């Protein structure tokens, strides 16, 4: 079984931008409502994947990902998604021994920026960059599937 181990954080400021090595736009939609798993289709440039993740909160969860034809992904996004797609620009940067993904959301989730780091073990130590803010790994509302259902713009002001 494939397991994703990932920690999520808000960013404290925008100083990470100077360290970004690359960035690209992603568009992803969900083919089901939350339950035991989320089923997602994602377009990343000219590549597309179908992804299935266990619907559990926390740093570790089962994940399966399979490449699919780009035309199929476009059709799924247009015809099968339960909610509008989540759009974001993903910036990649290295800090210490780890590759960080900084997701800068667009559309209904504009204004939200989340930093993620994938780890080899739940307790793996990692160097925290100065631009790192509060950890949100355990908060479901920051998961992309939740953002498709309740976008950031619809959150109460005290939850932002």
Automatic annotation (TrEMBL):
<dbReference type="InterPro" id="IPR033469">
    <property type="entry name" value="CYTH-like_dom_sf"/>
</dbReference>
<protein>
    <submittedName>
        <fullName>CYTH domain-containing protein</fullName>
    </submittedName>
</protein>
<dbReference type="InterPro" id="IPR023577">
    <property type="entry name" value="CYTH_domain"/>
</dbReference>
<dbReference type="InterPro" id="IPR012042">
    <property type="entry name" value="NeuTTM/CthTTM-like"/>
</dbReference>
<feature type="domain" description="CYTH">
    <location>
        <begin position="2"/>
        <end position="149"/>
    </location>
</feature>
<dbReference type="Pfam" id="PF01928">
    <property type="entry name" value="CYTH"/>
</dbReference>
């Amino acid at each position: 079984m494939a397991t994703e181990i990932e920690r999520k954080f808000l960013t404290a400021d925008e100083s990470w931008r100077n360290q970004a090595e690359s960035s690209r736009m992603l568009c992803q939609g969900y083919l089901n409502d939350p339950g035991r798993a989320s089923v997602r289709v994602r377009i990343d440039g000219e590549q597309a994947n179908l992804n299935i993740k266990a619907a559990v909160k926390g740093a570790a969860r089962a994940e399966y990902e399979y490449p699919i034809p780009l035309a199929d992904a476009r059709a799924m996004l247009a015809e099968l998604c339960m909610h509008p797609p989540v759009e974001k620009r993903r910036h990649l940067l290295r800090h210490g021994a780890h590759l960080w993904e900084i997701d800068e959301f667009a559309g209904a989730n504009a204004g939200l920026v989340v930093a993620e780091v994938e780890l080899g073990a739940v307790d793996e130590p990692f160097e925290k960059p100065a631009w790192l803010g509060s950890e949100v790994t355990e908060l479901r509302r920051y998961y992309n599937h939740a953002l498709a259902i309740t976008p950031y713009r619809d959150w109460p002001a005290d939850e932002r």
